[in-house]
Amino acid sequence: xxxxxxxxxxxxxxxxxxxxxxxxxxxxxxxxxxxxxxxxxxxxxxxxxxxxxxxxxxxxxxxxxxxxxxxxxxxxxx
Length: 78
Prior knowledge:
Blueprint: H1 12-24, E1 33-34, H2 37-46, H3 51-64, E2 67-70, E3 73-76
Antiparallel strand pairs: 1-3, 2-3
């Protein structure tokens, strides 16, 4: 029986930390704000995360105050 590999971002804390890391490396557009696509695409396509991991990680990061949403744009809390 073949076992599936454990997904590295299945843990909300791990996904949130990776999203914050990605956000920290994105150039801000205004007042520390970044476009969500700038962290969404690398997480999903480069790191092979899945949508639910992204969503749960993003929610976790917002709950912790690491990221916050401002009128459709997510910002990195420094």
